[in-house]
Amino acid sequence: MCGRFAFYQEIEPLLDDLGAVDLTEPGFRARWNIPPTVPIHVVTESIDRDSGEVLRALRMARWGLLPPFAKDLSFSARTFNARRETLAEKPSFRGSLARYRAVVPMNGYYEWRRDAKGRRTKEPFFITPADGSLLYMAALISWWKGPGGHEGPAASADGAWLLSASIITRESRGELADIHDRTPLMLTREAVDRWLDPGMDRAADAQAFALEDANLIDDALLEVRPVGPEVGSVRHDGPDLIAPAGTAQGRIPLPPA
């Protein structure tokens, strides 16, 4: 699964690489301990109804997908991940599969080792490309109206809609499977363009794409690094969280919410 990650990439190189416009707020830049239900960066692609032009944009979305039938925001606490094997079957996700896809850029994600009985231990790892490059995670998005208006960086300009997202996962293999049985769907740079393409507008085609391992980066390109236990608390943030266990100093506690 993916329940905590870091995104501290400079925005301009990301926009240049993807050919995207920045529709985010500058207050949400470098973060090293991002949990579900908070605003995250997503890259979307859509066709303007009036001009017919394709717009690729970096936006903010609540992490935890809110399908149209969700009654309140609490629903997103259980939809921050979506299994690729059942995207077309699950009511929460199948409505987004054909038309509302995205990628979540990140520098790496955290995972806690599971014991023989599948229980989470206190041993966290940071999983990141060994060459320092950026990860693009396949995701689904949904514009949710819900009751009342919305505020914050994930809301539409008029506050009528809230953008939400879920990161897609797959079964783990090799070294990653030694830590957890699920891992995010990490797309190659070429696969990003195809995943975002609004021309892929059939759910069956998108489902088949998500199941094709040729669209994913090689796990051998990843570094699996043990890190300190401080990442287990969202009250901690800062670059020291991704340092190898036993070497970080001066971790940065966040003030009370």
How do the helices and strands line up, and which of them pair or pack?
Layout: E1 5-7, H1 11-18, E2 21-22, E3 31-34, E4 39-47, E5 54-63, E6 81-83, H2 91-97, E7 101-106, E8 108-114, E9 120-129, E10 135-144, E11 162-171, H3 174-177, E12 182-184, E13 186-187, H4 189-196, H5 203-211, E14 222-226, E15 236-237, E16 252-253
Keywords: Covalent protein-DNA linkage, DNA damage, DNA-binding, Hydrolase, Lyase, Protease
GO molecular function: lyase activity; peptidase activity; single-stranded DNA binding
Region (Disordered): 233-257
Can you put this structure into words, describing what you see?
There is one protein chain. The chain is globular. The model is unreliable at 249-257 (pLDDT under 50). The protein is of the alpha+beta class and 257 residues long. The strands form 3 sheets. Strands 3-1-8-9-14 form a 5-stranded antiparallel beta sheet, with no helix packed on it. The chain has a 5-stranded mixed β-barrel with strand order 4-5-11-10-7. A two-stranded antiparallel sheet has the order 15-16. The chain has one domain: Alpha-Beta Complex (hypothetical protein yedk fold). It has helices spanning 11-18, 91-97, 174-177, 189-196, 203-211, and strands spanning 5-7, 21-22, 31-34, 39-47, 54-63, 81-83, 101-106, 108-114, 120-129, 135-144, 162-171, 182-184, 186-187, 222-226, 236-237, 252-253. It is built from 5 helices and 16 strands. Residues 233-257 are annotated as: Disordered. One of its GO terms (biological process) is protein-DNA covalent cross-linking repair. GO terms for molecular function: lyase activity; peptidase activity; single-stranded DNA binding. Belongs to the SOS response-associated peptidase family. InterPro entries: SRAP, SRAP-like.
